[in-house]
Amino acid sequence: MRLRTLSGNRVPQSPLKLMHRVYKYVLPEVDIELTKLRELADRIPDQELRTQAISSMDSKKFHCQGGGVYAAANLEHRHVLIPLIVALQTISDYLDNLCDRSTSLDPDDFRLLHQSMLDAVNPEAMLQDYYALRSENDDAGYLHHLVRLCQAQINRLPSYSSVQKHITELVSLYVDLQVYKHIHKDLREEHLLAWWELHREHYPDLQWNEFAAATGSTLGMFMLFLAASEERLSEQDASTIRNIYFPHVCGLHILLDYLIDQEEDLAGGDLNFCNYYANESLLVERIGTIVNRAREDVKQLPAPRFHRLIIEGLLALYLSDPKVRHQADVKDVSKKLMKNSPLTRLFFLMNSIWIRKQQA
Predict the structure, then answer these.
(1) Average pLDDT, stretch 257-268?
(2) N or C: which end of the chain has fewer CB within 10 A?
(3) Which residues have C-beta within 8 Å of that of residue 43, sequence separation ≥ 6?
(4) SS3 182
(5) What is the pLDDT of residue 329?
(6) Mean pLDDT along residues 249-272
């Protein structure tokens, strides 16, 4: 099935053209947005909230940079897409930090915090007291600013009405994951497995941990933002795009993220979905299968090479992360996944290493 309305003629489909746009437009403009948000975060009165807000930008900046790549596919709307992507990703990373290192294990607290993300993608939503169920609550309006920023940018997307229900669905799944993975350790698997039972019939090729991983990705949301920057995007095409990106592209994204975070998650007592495979061989096999499914899925999109570049870029970005070198098992898995890599992936690997060195 081919999409009817999503334009592909201006989308970069070669690695050189894509990286030219990334270096010239995406990285500098993501930096501008993060600098503005960092100034607000520096003024948060509550020490814990301030610490987690700043930490989320310092340690997870590459999430915003990676998401910003979608704006390279429609430079005319990058002034809308980049602030929107950075703001929503910053909400995600900030709340993940708050829940990971939380003084609370209250699922209602986690759900109320993440209501901000649901409100951010609903331009009609009213602001709420998202900190009402926790003692740390004085952020001087930081989270409200992020929500309003998302809503303001969304109102500038010409076809948002066609994608809104799909973005809301993906955010709702993301919120469920954040609640279940952060409650008391003894309850996490029980709740995640019960949640999986509600969805498994729709994803017969996935294991429960792979579905859970896919729900943790923001890439499907960003792709739908990009689609909504087109005039006259139909609801049918929006539905097709959602199904192309979720679950395989989204699942690959977060499984790679968990792959390199295994040591860190073990030390922090955090749940890691890569630990649910029986052995290393099965882990490599399943990630390889998801890579292949993702590649097949994106062939249905206009400018499919752009999305293939996204997939190869994900592999290069995560497998070149410095964390890989310090974990023998992860290093071994990475070598196996990089074996027989296409030149495109090696190109992105070199670029990922260079960008990290420049930012260090």
Answers:
(1) 88
(2) C
(3) 140
(4) helix
(5) 84
(6) 90
**Between 60 and 35, where is the model more confident?**
35
Tokens linked to 113: 């915090």
CB-count burial class (<10 Å; 0-12, 13-18, 19+) for 279: exposed
73-77 contact pairs (CB < 8 A, 24+): 73/10, 73/11, 73/12, 73/226, 73/303, 73/306, 74/10, 74/11, 74/226, 74/229, 74/230, 75/10, 75/21, 75/25, 77/157, 77/229
CA distances from 10 to 71, 74, 121, 351 (A): 12, 7, 26, 23
Q: What angle do CA 41, 37, 68 make, to 5 degrees?
A: 140
Q: Which DSSP string do the residues of 243-276 spell out, in sequence order? A: HHHTTHHHHHHHHHHHHHTHHHHHHHT---GGGG
ω into 15 cis (within 30 of 0):
no
Contacts of 359 (CB under 8 A, 6+ apart): 61
Please state the rounded mean pLDDT for residues 104-124: 96
Nearest-angstrom CA–CA distance, 69 and 51: 27
Q: How far apart are CA 314 and CA 219, in angstroms?
A: 11
SS3 7: coil
* Rg for the chain, CA atoms, rounded: 19
* Residue 45 DSSP SS3: coil
Going by pLDDT thresholds of 50, 70 and 90, the confidence category of residue 344 is: confident
Tell me the C-alpha distance between 14 and 12, whole Å.
6
Average pLDDT value over all residues in the chain: 92
Cα–Cα distance, 8 to 307 (Å, whole number): 11
